[in-house]
Amino acid sequence: MSTHTIDARVQRMAATPCPNGFLMPRFMVLSCVQAHRLRRVRMSQSACIMVLQGYKTLILEHDRLVAKPGDMFLLPAMFEVTIENVPDPSRGVYRALCLTLTPEAVARVTASTRTPPGPEAFRLGSLRVRMDEVVEASLSHFLDMAEACPDSERLLDLCLEALLLLVSERTSGFATLWRAEDAWKAKCARVVGVDTARAWTAADLAARLGVSERTFRRHLRREGTSFREVLKDARLEAALALLQSGNMAVSEASFRCGYESPSRFATRFRERYGVKPSDIVRFAAGNGQHLAGSELTKDVRNG
After folding, report:
1. C-alpha distances in angstroms, 234 versus 194, 219, 256, 261?
2. In a domain, 49, yes or no
3. How far is Cα of residue 87 from the mean position of the Cα atoms in its chain?
4. Rg of the chain on CA atoms, in Å
5. Nearest 5°: phi and psi at 250?
6. Residue 20 has pLDDT above 60, yes or no
7. Which end is more exposed in the chain, N or C (fewer Cβ atoms within 10 Å of the end residue's Cβ)?
């Protein structure tokens, strides 16, 4: 199945409303119509991403990974990286398929795979997935099931786990995913992300995770963060996703994510991402969903 065929199917699926009124489980479309840089990109769940149109560059200090149409790579949970998206020069659109991975699926595949752990010196290139006909066939099957049964989350999880098993055998960086999923800040982000408007306390979150508040705070300190930081980041990241859908006003997004004051939200947002919430709406394209904060760039393919 060619990249063009996958792109056409993904566009059709993204434009089709699900029976439950939400996006298909595990399925997101990332798109934009302006070249831009996304700073401090981070997702609460690991993801498998395939570029369909345009170019994507991942930057981690002096390390880079450039993905062109047809390329696939993994993005571990809570992994901060700078991302640059550039639309196809002839079509004027950047688009990628993003498949989010559950911690349970990552754990099962990790337990069953015979791939060795990743190299001690991490490189972005280790996140690349070697594409072949088997992976493409598995992806095609997932898309078939997503079109036929968009509201069957369990079925799609099984199809996606089968794809993930094949992916794990075609990358040297799969072990990075499990290490990321097992981090306490990732666990916290997943819980808070379910209800970002709630007035969470450290005791509430510790109880959800099955530990005492003291133990909970100790785990976060070991990872160099705190309850306050985890809560703030989870709310801002959720607001970012809502704004980038292109279907929500800034005031509504701020309220849904636990901010009673839109001005306070805008201040926090700009401190984190370096842009105003309204700028994010401007970069959104159609029904695409981006990963994190955006800043316009004239040409991000150089270098």
Report:
1. 10, 17, 12, 17
2. yes
3. 19
4. 19
5. -60, -40
6. no
7. C
Q: How many helices (H) and strands (E) does the chain have?
A: 12, 10
Q: Is residue 92 part of a domain?
A: yes
* Residue 240, helix vs strand vs coil: helix
Alpha-carbon distances of 159 from 17, 143, 199, 255, 272, rounded to whole Å: 21, 9, 36, 36, 36
82 touches 137 (CB < 8 A): no
**Domain containing 221: what range?**
3-296
In a domain, residue 302? The reply is no
pLDDT range class, residue 119, cuts 50, 70, 90: low
DSSP 8-state class, residue 84 = E
Residue with tokens 């981006």: 290
Crossing angle of helices 227-244 and 213-222, rounded to 10°: 70
Q: pLDDT tens for residues 138-178? A: 999 999 998 888 888 899 999 999 999 999 999 999 988 98
> Residue 124: which CATH number?
2.60.120.280
- Contact present, 115 and 168 (Cβ < 8 Å): yes
Considering the domain boundaries, does residue 28 fall inside one?
yes
**How many whole angstroms separate alpha carbon 46 and alpha carbon 173?**
12
User: Per the structure, how many domains does the chain have?
Assistant: 1
Distance CA 111, CA 181 (A): 14
For 180, phi and psi rounded to 5 degrees? Answer: -70, -40
